Amino acid sequence: MRTDLTKRVLTFCTFFICCGALALLSASFATQRWIVAKAVKVGLPPSISNATAGDSTKFRGELHFGLFEGSKTLNHGFGDRKSHIW
To answer: Largest alpha-carbon pair distance within the chain?
Structure first.
């Protein structure tokens, strides 16, 4: 009788662990933003640094990495440039 109770408890726990694993797996396939990073260019010459002091969007960007793909938006001083990362 003690063995039957142990089997039931272990089966019950295994079921919930499997359901949790499936939920995490589904979420990983569904999201495209596992990692979000902000890019900032450092080491600019003083002439460029002073000219862009008022415009905080120049020489910056964002990167988004998912499980299978991602995207990056970088601004090199001429506006945002979007590209796809495979």
So the answer is: 82
